[in-house]
Amino acid sequence: MAQLILFNKPYGVLSQFTDNGTQTARPTLSNYIDIPAVYPAGRLDRDSEGLLLLTDDGKLQARIADPKYKLPKTYLAQVEGDVQEGSLNQLRQGVRLKDGLTRPADAERIAPPDLWPRDPPVRFRKTVPDSWIKLTIREGRNRQVRRMTAAIGHPTLRLVRWSVGDWTLDGLLPGEWREVDPVRPVQ
Question: I want to staple 7 with a disulfide (CB 3.0 to 4.6 A). Which of 79, 99, 151, 177 is the partner?
Answer without folding.
Answer: 177
